[in-house]
Amino acid sequence: MAQSVLFKNMELLDPRWDSARGGYQVLTEGGTIKEVSDKPIKAAKAAVVDCGKRTLMPGLIDCHVHVMLSEVNIRNLESIPLTLMTARSAELMRGMIDRGFTTVRDTGGADWGLKTAVETGLLAGPRLFISGRAIGPTGGHSDSRRRTDMGARCGCCNALVHGMAIADGADEVRKTVREQMRQGADQIKIMCSGGVASPYDPLDSLQYSPAEIAAATDEAANFGRYVLAHAYTPEAITRAVSNGVRTIEHGNLIDAKSAKLLASKGGFMIANLVTYFEMKERAASFGMSADILAKNDVVLEGALRSLEICKKAGVEVGFGTDLLGQLQTEQSKEFIHRAKVLKPIEIIRQATLVGAKILRLEGKIGVVEPGAYADFILVDGNPLKKLELFLDQGAHLPVIMQGGRFHKNELH
Length: 412
Description:
Layout: E1 5-12, E2 21-29, E3 32-37, E4 47-50, E5 55-58, E6 60-65, H1 82-98, E7 101-106, H2 112-119, E8 127-129, E9 134-136, H3 159-162, E10 164-166, H4 170-182, E11 188-191, H5 210-222, E12 227-231, H6 234-242, E13 247-250, H7 256-264, E14 268-272, H8 274-282, H9 290-313, E15 316-320, H10 333-338, H11 344-358, E16 376-379, E17 399-402, E18 405-409
Parallel strand pairs: 1-4, 1-5, 6-7, 7-8, 9-10, 11-12, 12-13, 13-14, 14-15
Antiparallel strand pairs: 1-2, 2-3, 5-16, 16-17, 17-18
Helix pairs in contact: 4-5, 6-7, 7-9, 8-9
């Protein structure tokens, strides 16, 4: 059982506030926050952490990761068995929690086994919300087959196949969604437009019909789940949202009209900026082809503008990164790219409060209040004044706590 811990002598940053506040103490007990007070807390049996005037804030939330995609050039995954992929994912997940991300939503690849390994302490990593296999149509963004492949491919020795599913027609989509939920999916991912890393589908292709999307969202709702959709263009976003999709992933090419529709439905967009910047700079060195890099340039051009469009339309935007393989170490650079158009407090709220809404855990993560999970990071300074404190692989985070347990504590 997690020990009782008293944090004192810090600046407290609850993202619901506009600035950090001094004079507070926080007591955790049994994995959750027991008390938050601007007066001394009496807890004789608690372990005391003197924060040395550093900033204490909730653990970060990344709503779009791929812990199983350990290669930038995903074609390299074709010859990797799931055993090696799992070992690699352990390293990727440890890196995420080292950077202060205590909760992540995996959008295709991670399964209930990996989630259980983290929950039971077998592997160090963020709290995982899994989508199972990302579902798309034949020839779409989740169809990993080469043009020389005929029929289905075996997934036992091909990690690329493991994270993706092909389903055509409303009935087959419905069955595949049911299967992902049987396998413990927290949410369902579908493909509604072309993708960057998939070589055969144009970005502006529409990949699921209204009936197929409606089948997915209906079945997910029946199970108490929701659907997220990979979608770049206004047409794909509009089709997805009009048929019950709750969150739009990427959305780089969103326009005012589709953003207004998304806002009217109470939906969310999970933007991912850092992956396109890093792909442009480094993906060619990992063997990414020229046609994929050309598609990356198109979505990169709209990345920052998409944040401005959503802000104007009133769309809540979640923090996501979508980095592949060796680029995942750049996860925290997402803060720096968003700061080109947003204020630091807006970005921190996206990585805490908005993330909690997306995961339907409001009041449990992303805030500092009694009853919430004891997920904390301690920052060597004020991130509202210097977002760079999130960089350098957690070097400026001397304390990381998840569920009341220390992942890292350099203040012994």
